[in-house]
Protein backbone atom coordinates (compact mmCIF):
# COMPACT_ATOMS: atom_id res chain seq x y z
CA UNK A 1 0.00 0.00 0.00
CA UNK A 2 1.38 3.38 -1.01
CA UNK A 3 1.98 5.79 1.80
CA UNK A 4 1.95 9.49 0.81
CA UNK A 5 4.80 10.19 3.24
CA UNK A 6 7.06 7.60 1.67
CA UNK A 7 6.15 8.29 -1.98
CA UNK A 8 6.64 12.06 -1.79
CA UNK A 9 3.09 12.65 -3.02
CA UNK A 10 1.70 15.90 -1.71
CA UNK A 11 -2.03 16.37 -1.35
CA UNK A 12 -3.26 19.92 -1.23
CA UNK A 13 -6.37 20.88 0.65
CA UNK A 14 -9.27 22.51 -1.18
CA UNK A 15 -10.13 26.12 -0.58
CA UNK A 16 -13.76 25.91 0.48
CA UNK A 17 -14.41 29.49 1.49
CA UNK A 18 -17.95 30.73 1.00
CA UNK A 19 -17.07 33.02 -1.90
CA UNK A 20 -15.18 30.28 -3.72
CA UNK A 21 -17.95 27.76 -3.07
CA UNK A 22 -20.51 30.24 -4.44
CA UNK A 23 -18.37 30.72 -7.54
CA UNK A 24 -18.17 26.96 -8.13
CA UNK A 25 -21.91 26.59 -7.51
CA UNK A 26 -22.74 29.39 -9.96
CA UNK A 27 -20.45 27.94 -12.63
CA UNK A 28 -21.80 24.44 -12.18
CA UNK A 29 -25.41 25.66 -12.28
CA UNK A 30 -24.70 27.66 -15.44
CA UNK A 31 -23.13 24.69 -17.23
CA UNK A 32 -25.95 22.39 -16.07
CA UNK A 33 -28.61 24.79 -17.31
CA UNK A 34 -26.75 25.19 -20.59
CA UNK A 35 -26.65 21.40 -21.03
CA UNK A 36 -30.32 21.15 -20.07
CA UNK A 37 -31.19 23.82 -22.64
CA UNK A 38 -29.33 22.12 -25.47
CA UNK A 39 -30.66 18.65 -24.60
CA UNK A 40 -34.25 19.53 -23.81
CA UNK A 41 -35.27 22.85 -25.25
CA UNK A 42 -33.07 23.85 -28.20
CA UNK A 43 -35.42 22.92 -31.00
CA UNK A 44 -37.43 24.70 -33.66
CA UNK A 45 -38.27 28.36 -33.05
CA UNK A 46 -36.26 28.61 -29.80
CA UNK A 47 -33.11 27.12 -31.31
CA UNK A 48 -29.99 29.26 -30.95
CA UNK A 49 -28.83 28.27 -34.42
CA UNK A 50 -32.06 28.90 -36.32
CA UNK A 51 -33.38 26.09 -38.46
CA UNK A 52 -30.10 24.18 -38.27
CA UNK A 53 -30.78 20.83 -36.59
CA UNK A 54 -27.20 19.72 -35.88
CA UNK A 55 -27.48 20.35 -32.12
CA UNK A 56 -30.83 18.59 -32.00
CA UNK A 57 -29.49 15.55 -33.82
CA UNK A 58 -26.32 15.48 -31.71
CA UNK A 59 -28.27 15.26 -28.42
CA UNK A 60 -31.21 13.34 -29.84
CA UNK A 61 -30.64 10.12 -27.89
CA UNK A 62 -30.15 12.03 -24.64
CA UNK A 63 -33.39 13.89 -25.31
CA UNK A 64 -35.31 10.62 -25.61
CA UNK A 65 -33.49 9.07 -22.66
CA UNK A 66 -34.49 11.95 -20.40
CA UNK A 67 -38.09 11.95 -21.64
CA UNK A 68 -38.20 15.34 -23.34
CA UNK A 69 -40.77 15.66 -26.13
CA UNK A 70 -39.25 15.36 -29.55
CA UNK A 71 -41.26 14.10 -32.50
ZN1 LIG B 1 -36.65 12.10 -31.32
Automatic annotation (TrEMBL):
One Pfam family from the record: CbtB
Claim: Transmembrane is one of the keywords in the record: yes
This protein's UniProt keywords: Membrane, Transmembrane, Transmembrane helix
Record's protein name: Cobalt transporter
Source organism: Mycobacterium fragae
Source domain of life: Bacteria
Spans through the membrane: 21-41
UniProt cross-references to InterPro entries, sorted A to Z: CbtB_put (IPR012667)
Amino acid sequence: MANPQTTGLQVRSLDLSAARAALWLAGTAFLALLALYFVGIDQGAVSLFGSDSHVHEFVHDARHLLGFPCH
